[in-house]
Design brief:
The chain has about 450 residues and is an alpha/beta fold. Helix 4 links the parallel strand 4 and strand 5. The strands form two sheets. The protein has an eight-stranded parallel barrel with strand order 1-2-3-4-5-6-7-8. About 45% of the residues lie in helices and about 10% in strands. It has two domains: about 280 residues, Alpha-Beta Barrel (TIM Barrel); about 110 residues, STAT, domain 1 (Methane Monooxygenase Hydroxylase, Chain G, domain 1), CATH 1.20.58. Bound molecules: 2-(acetylamido)-2-deoxy-D-glucono-1,5-lactone. The site of 2-(acetylamido)-2-deoxy-D-glucono-1,5-lactone has 16 residues, from loops. 2-(acetylamido)-2-deoxy-D-glucono-1,5-lactone (GDL) binds next to loops.
Length: about 450
């Protein structure tokens, strides 16, 4: 595989509503235009990808896939079709292997050449946090992959097969060099098969070449990174509009490729994709600079209408503020972080910070007002609930600061007319979270009783 091209692109690999054919066509056109070469089809909730992987696609869906594969061909993007058979205990038995051939045959008839087999998220994690996969789990997976590889080679010798292992990140594998599962994979899996890895964690803040040293030696090949930096399927209240970050340029040389698993909301993919393409293209990648360039490209989509029928683009600073508020899993963007720090200082009584915090509250209210007038309603509804929540918090903070500025009596308490118990910060999940709060270090309170 060392001479195979570096794979760079997108894995549609998230839980939740899969993208539509039209969205995929738009994506593929953009991948090609940005010089990215791969689209891996792996939507967890396409029934025929995972839960009912043996079933053939019905005519209409098959035609949509045929069109998509053709669009990939025109855009210079390799289409990779993934099967995730691991929930089916009989996947490697003869009937499973026959179903595999039939399914691969259908996809090949639609134009697919490259395949992936995914065995992630199939064994419940024991409380220790480590998945208990052993070589006994690896053996049938390898058999399944080899069956497909042999079949693939008969059709076309120049194809690629990707493989997602059951422990697919450092945290799951524990000490990688001691993992019987990974060692078995390294020894027995056809060396031309790419093995996927999400980095030290499922959602990795950083991934460095050094993080992959042990893995590369155990697998006897460089891994292919499945990058969940922008995936937001694990928390409905997050959306990631920040830049690709935390991966040095040298990571490219330590891997056979990087595929991004983006936000579920298709309309939110632009900052991730544009900045990732810049990272793939050059060594002098700077996340801040790339993000500014990505926002500049995206800005044209943010057209606001007014009551007179006139239209104007969302002010650039408000788009930047939005992207900074809905940034990355581990960091707020600079404008959001500065405002958060101002709010913290304002609550401690710092006069200069109070003025800046209030200004920030007003800007968030203005951002929300502009967003409601967006011409592109898909874009609006992609950010609506999150922008709403932000303007609610900003309104509460502004109300609290006003109340204090009016000279509240010592010992008195602030009540907001718009933020009432149960309708604000309410719901069963919020109640449960308050029963078992999480500390910043990841531990939960209350601790075990003595
Ligand atoms: C995962 C899943 C992926 C999901 C992501 C983020 C892999 C290999 N599998 O564990 O489908 O979108 O986390 O929640 O990443």
């Amino acid at each position: 595989m060392s001479r195979a091209p570096f794979l760079a692109g997108v894995v549609e690999g998230f839980y939740g509503r899969p993208w539509t054919p039209a969205q995929r066509h738009e994506l593929v056109g953009r991948l090609g235009a940005l010089g990215l070469n791969t689209y891996l089809y792996a939507p967890k909730d396409d029934l025929r990808h995972r839960a009912r992987w043996r079933e053939a696609y019905p005519a209409a869906e098959a035609e949509a896939l045929r069109d998509l594969i053709a669009a990939c061909g025109r855009a210079g993007v390799e289409f990779v079709y993934a099967l995730a058979p691991g929930l089916d205990p009989a996947f490697a038995r003869p009937d499973g292997l026959a179903a595999l051939e039939a399914k691969a045959g259908q996809l090949a008839a639609l134009g697919a050449r490259h395949f992936a087999v995914l065995f992630d998220d199939i064994i419940p994690a024991p409380a220790s946090g480590q998945l208990g996969a052993t070589e006994h789990d690896a053996a049938p997976q390898i058999e399944f992959a080899h069956h497909l590889r042999r079949w693939q080679r008969q059709q076309d010798p120049d194809t690629r097969l990707l493989f997602c292992p059951t422990p697919y990140c450092g945290r799951m594998a524990g000490e990688v060099t001691a993992s019987c599962y990974l060692r078995h994979l390294g020894t027995h899996l056809d060396p031309t098969v790419d093995v996927m890895w999400t980095g030290p964690e499922i959602i990795s803040e950083t991934i460095s070449p050094e993080d992959l040293d042990g893995l590369t030696s155990v697998l006897r090949r460089r891994p292919l990174i499945w990058d969940n930096l922008f995936a937001n399927d694990y928390d409905l209240r997050r959306l990631y509009l920040g830049p690709y970050a935390g991966r040095p340029a040298a990571l490219r040389g330590a891997t056979t490729g990087v595929l991004l698993n983006p936000n579920c909301e298709f309309a939110a993919h632009r900052p991730a994709l544009e900045t990732f393409a810049a990272w793939v293209a050059g060594d002098d990648y700077d996340p801040g600079r790339a993000h500014a360039a990505a926002r500049e490209v995206w800005h044209a989509d943010w057209c606001c209408l007014d009551a007179t029928g006139a239209s104007s683009l969302l002010p650039r600073d408000l788009l930047a503020l939005l992207c900074d508020c809905l940034h990355l899993p581990f960091a707020h963007g600079p404008r959001a972080e500065a405002w958060r720090a101002d709010v913290a200082a304002a609550l401690q009584g710092d006069a200069a910070a109070i003025a800046r915090a209030r200004e920030g509250c007003a800007r968030l209210a203005s951002l929300f007002e502009h967003l409601t007038r967006l011409e592109d309603r898909e874009l609006l509804h992609t950010v609506y609930r999150l922008a709403w929540e932000l303007k609610e918090e900003a309104g509460l903070i502004a109300g609290y600061l006003d109340w204090r500025a009016r000279g509240a009596a010592p010992g008195s308490a602030f009540h907001s007319a718009e933020h009432r118990p149960r309708t604000y910060r309410g719901g069963l999940v919020a109640d449960l979270q308050s029963l078992l709060p999480m500390r910043p270090d990841g531990s939960f309170t209350p601790a075990r009783p003595q």
